Hints:
Layout: H1 3-31, E1 48-53, E2 58-63, E3 70-80, E4 86-96, E5 109-115, H2 116-123, E6 127-129, E7 137-141, E8 145-149, H3 161-169, E9 173-175
Antiparallel strand pairs: 1-2, 2-9, 3-4, 3-6, 4-5, 5-8, 7-8
Amino acid sequence: MNKKNKRVAALLLLAAVAVSVPAIVNANRANHAEEVVPVVAQAHQVEQTVYENTQYGFRFTLPDSWKGYTIVTDKWEGHDATDGKVIESGASISIRHPEWTADKPRQDVPIYVFTIDQWNAIQQEKMFIGAAPMRPSELTRNDKYVFALPARYNFAYLDGYQEVEDILKGNPIQPL
């Protein structure tokens, strides 16, 4: 066999292989179904910090960035709608971010605690809390208490007020 014939034979062999290999691969795929390995999406677990108040019976879930929070207790006063005199009072509980300082205060998560009767008096406009023309807004309740967000709690626009709003959108408070 001369050089020219060897070259032609080699080209024919290459052409045959080029045509055969894809056909063999496709036939092999048809006979063997591809193994599909399901990808299990892992839920990204957000670390959370929980404040539990057993005195009034509620639990409040916070992002882990609030780990090390402090609790500031105070009281709210309810004024008679006719003469403005103080007729009721109750607990005001604020969850304070760990980065809060006197020089650089941050927005607290404020929670007013009302008895059912106190809450009903507010709803019936027999009593009002503070000077705002708006009532507190209910967050949740249990058999004894209503937990509410004070009206205009965030109007000072302190650092972190948007974060507190985002936390509140997630329904973080649960009655016990």
